[in-house]
Write a structure and sequence with these properties.
Blueprint lengths: L11 H13 L3 H8 L11 E2 L6 E9 L6 H9 L5 E13 L3 H9 L4 E8 L2 H7 L3 E6 L11 E2 L3 E3 L2 E3 L4 E5 L2 E5 L4 H23 L4 H5 L1 H6 L4 H7 L2
Parallel strand pairs: 2-3, 3-4, 4-5
Antiparallel strand pairs: 1-5, 2-6, 2-9, 7-8, 9-10
Helix pairs in contact: 1-6, 2-6
The protein binds oxaloacetate ion and magnesium ion.
Protein name: Putative 4-hydroxy-4-methyl-2-oxoglutarate aldolase
Subunit structure: Homotrimer.
Family: Belongs to the class II aldolase/RraA-like family.
Length: 234
């Protein structure tokens, strides 16, 4: 079992920058994905417990072994306010890795959300508590708590590598992960892209179509043929 207690987080101004974007723009995750090479999102089978989850926070990871929840319980204890717990349960949707009691622990630590590559239970209670959970499913069966698992090690979650201290941003479109070392650059690029999007919106509101604005006819005449291109180079 590996338990890493201290996590290197992005500077507070960067974390606040992402929170500000989430406050001011609706589809921040889409702009972040665009800036990460049209990637960076968790898979679409990650479902929210309720609508309207909009958050940015830093990652604490729990990597489970079998159905054991011990790593999740320990991760909650190591969290700082507004952290997001990412549970790598290897996509095991037939076992619960989170429940009402763990939610109440997490709320006592002011954890912002749980993102689980697996399932959880006590769904009605957690909905009433309004604690944000994203998961692959909901199921009553839960594993033992027998001391197995790892905390704050690199993990995967829903198709993405995730490291402790990365940024997670969640809105109505889904979840994106920005690696800690790219957090500042992606924040700046995303701010700019959202401003550009505002400009495009103005043109659309004035009656334009995207096809006109990007000259789609010309683009489609230039269909790319890699064999022709390869021959040109001989
Ligand atoms: O107790 C467990 O193992 C999970 C659970 O149901 C809870 O956290 O309430
Ligand atoms: Mg329970």
């Amino acid at each position: 079992m590996t338990v890493i207690e201290s996590v290197k987080r992005p500077q507070q101004t960067i974390v606040e920058g992402y929170k500000e974007l989430v406050k001011n723009y609706e589809s921040v995750t889409c702009a972040i994905s665009d800036n990460m090479g049209r990637a960076g999102a968790m898979t679409a089978d990650m479902k929210p417990l309720f609508e309207g989850i909009r958050l940015a926070g830093t990652v604490i990871t729990a990597k489970t072994v079998g159905g054991d929840l011990s790593a999740v319980i320990k991760a909650v204890d190591l969290a700082q306010p507004e952290d997001i717990i990412v549970v790598d349960a290897q996509g095991n949707a037939n076992s619960a890795f989170w429940g009402e009691n763990i939610t109440m622990s997490a709320m006592n630590k002011r954890v912002a959300a749980a993102v689980i590559d697996g399932s959880f239970r006590d769904v009605e209670e957690i909905r009433k508590l309004k604690f944000p959970v994203f998961s692959k499913g909901i199921v009553p069966n839960v594993g033992a708590i027998a001391g197995y698992g790892h905390v704050n090690v690199p993990v995967q979650c829903a198709g993405l590598p995730v490291h402790p201290g990365d940024m997670i941003i969640i809105d109505g479109n889904g979840i994106v992960v920005v690696p800690n070392e790219e957090a500042e650059e992606i924040l700046n690029k995303t701010r700019s892209l959202l401003e550009v999007e505002d400009g495009v919106q103005e043109k659309l509101k004035a009656g334009a179509t995207i096809g006109e604005l990007i000259d789609i006819d010309q683009l489609m005449q230039n269909g790319f043929n890699y064999q022709e291109r390869a021959l040109e180079k001989r």
